[in-house]
Write a structure and sequence with these properties.
By secondary structure, the chain is mainly alpha-helical. Helices cover about 65% and strands about 0% of the residues. It contains 13 helices and no strands. Helix 3 packs across helix 5, helix 5 runs antiparallel to helix 11 and helix 6 runs antiparallel to helix 7.
């Protein structure tokens, strides 16, 4: 469901009523699949997301390396932090899906496995706060898919090609737009939210310790979700990012191509080459 630009997506959204409806319409046109069937598939996707969050929050999802697992349940049950409510719930949900992914559980790559926690965390917690219906949640996922399609068309969603900004950054942009739609914002505001989220992750490198999609990947899902919430709050308050979303995506693509290979999923730079990172990688190889 890819538009060549957000400008095209926005024009279609203004015609059909929302980013979600615009994304649905192009998917119908491209695949020939009926709207009811596409909505049913997206409801199934939502169900997988919900199950992954639940599994992660149980504290039972542990990676084989032992690097990650159990942190989502700690955040969910903690009363020690300065923040609470939807914000803390979102962080916990993002960690939960990241932990399930690291444990080889069933998740939705949205946009990738390593960045699979951002979108469900934001959609499910904002949806709960706004008492959104299943139909509204499903449409929010279509809106997110529309944003992801633009990024994939104009740049990349791959950490190996563009660094973690292309994965967590894209997930945050998708989630921010979905949150705006769930909160009753306009398509234009959703676009500003996506731009605000993506620019906030510009330059983020991909440096998995030991080459495993665990550290720092799982934790970046939580920070990416926090960025998405901040971007949605700003956009809903009327903040307009001065650089259009399409240009932000183009800039992200340029930055990704400019990153050295050591910072693009090769585990040859960044946190992966710290003393602690090297020690963790050695221990993982021994298992």
């Amino acid at each position: 469901m890819a538009y060549a630009s957000f400008e095209e997506l926005l024009a279609a959204a203004n015609t059909h009523g929302s980013l979600g409806k615009a994304a649905l319409e192009i998917e119908i046109a491209e695949t020939g699949t009926s709207a009811p069937e596409l909505r049913a598939r997206m409801r199934e996707t939502l169900g997988v997301m919900r199950d992954a969050v639940g599994t992660g929050l149980s504290g039972n999802a542990r990676s084989r390396s032992g690097f990650v697992g159990g942190d989502a349940s700690k955040v969910a049950s903690s009363q020690a932090g300065p923040l609470g409510g939807t914000f803390a719930d979102t962080i916990a949900a993002a960690l939960a899906t990241g932990e399930v992914n690291a444990a080889m559980g069933r998740i939705v790559a949205a946009p990738t496995g390593g960045a699979s926690g951002v979108l469900p965390a934001v959609v499910l917690t904002v949806g709960a706060q706004t008492s959104a219906s299943e139909e509204a949640l499903t449409e929010a996922l279509f809106a997110a898919a529309g944003i992801g399609g633009v990024i994939a068309t104009r740049a990349t969603l791959s950490g190996a090609a563009g660094g973690c900004q292309a994965e967590i950054g894209s997930g945050a942009a998708m989630a921010a737009a979905a949150a705006v739609e769930l909160s009753g914002g306009t398509p234009a505001q959703a676009g500003h939210a996506a731009a605000l989220a993506l620019q906030g992750q510009m330059g983020l490198v991909c440096d998995p310790i030991g080459g495993l999609v665990e550290v720092p990947c799982v934790y970046r899902n939580a920070t990416g979700a926090a960025v998405a919430l901040a971007a949605a709050e700003m956009a809903l308050a009327g903040v307009e990012f001065p650089v259009p979303f399409d240009e932000v995506v183009d800039a992200m693509g340029f930055v990704g191509r400019s990153l050295p290979p050591s910072l693009r999923e090769t585990a040859l730079g960044g946190l992966a080459t710290t003393p602690a990172g090297r020690d963790m990688a050695a221990r993982a190889r021994e298992k």
